[in-house]
Amino acid sequence: MRRLVVVVLFEGVDLLDVTGPPEVFSLVRRETGEAEGYEVVLAAETPEPVRTAAGVRILPDTTFDAVAARRIDTLVVPGSVETDGEGRVRAITDPAVVDRVRELAGGARRIASVCVGAHLLAAAGLLDGRRATTHWSTAGQLAADHPAVTVDADPIFVRQGRVWTGAGISACLDLSLALVADDLGETLALRVARQLVMYLKRPSGQSQFSVPLEPVSTTRRVEELRHHIMRDLAGPLGIADLAAYAHIGERQLTRIFKSELGTTPSAYVEAARVERARTELETTDATLERVASVCGFGTTGTLVRAFRRRLGTTPTEYRRRFRTESLPPTGE
């Protein structure tokens, strides 16, 4: 059985959004032979080459009109962004592309967006009433432009029925592996992941965020609090401590964090500590006791629980998979 995967092409599309998923699906063919797997085609408005955002031109395999007559198993929708003079990123949604996505989605068994491709799905009405994710840098735009969509900026991918949405560009590989596992089983997906030299199936709920990359707030007070937290992760950072530092009441502090950063003070502190712990685990041979201490967790038990909650794994397993140099194993 060959499943038809159609990747949507348009001018200015992000190159890795287009090339990532086909690489995963092509490895399925390598692992299984021609008897099963996927047929991947790149479809555009015309047969003419499409210039990507990277300046590389891609030649479509077919046109939207031609592929619409076929039975589409999976429609893959990549995205495109533009930046303004201050470096702010916005997703681009060409109405003509949106119309084509809506048309092709109607005949597809499954729809998957890559990175900011979620904006095209939302503009086509395909995410109304659904939970969805996208790249963290455009999550606010997606929520503002499409209030009928429940935007969750944290996971690397989200599945809602036949609609899947992915986060950052590298998450397209995680999303594609999840699609393979859903179709052909996790054993085959593991074999493909090994060919890619990557860890199989980061949990869909794993965070895409790096805390220092989160959008800055609009008030100086919160920015000062954020910098205070990052400078003193091992120090006392309870709600009372932060409120005292900012010279405001605890309730006001909680309201400010919710309105400015979309989270609670304690959740933000935990996220910041996890981020620091990730760096320690990736780049040092410090014991888990030492990591827990310098990052403000106090005990290894608290460190482990925070990692399970936010990353879906343990610190030891995280270090084994993601450390950047050969380090001796440490602790549990």
Record the SSE blueprint:
Blueprint: E1 2-8, H1 15-32, E2 37-44, E3 50-51, E4 57-58, E5 62-63, H2 64-68, E6 72-77, E7 81-83, E8 89-91, H3 95-106, E9 108-113, H4 118-123, E10 131-132, H5 139-145, E11 150-151, E12 157-160, E13 163-166, H6 171-184, H7 186-195, H8 220-231, H9 239-246, H10 250-261, H11 265-283, H12 288-294, H13 300-311, H14 315-322
Parallel strand pairs: 1-2, 1-6, 2-5, 6-9, 9-13, 10-11
Antiparallel strand pairs: 3-4, 7-8, 12-13
Helix pairs in contact: 1-6, 1-7, 6-7, 9-10, 11-13, 11-14
Quick structural overview:
With 332 residues, the chain is an alpha/beta fold. 45% of the residues lie in helices and 15% in strands. Helix 1 links the parallel strand 1 (2-8) and strand 2.
Shape: globular
Count of DSSP strands: 13
Structural class: alpha/beta
Helix and strand element order = EHEEEEHEEEHEHEHEEEHHHHHHHHH
How big a fraction of the residues is strand? 15-25%
Q: Helix coverage percent of residues?
A: 40-55%
Number of H/I helices = 14
Distance between the termini: 44 Å
Mean pLDDT: 87
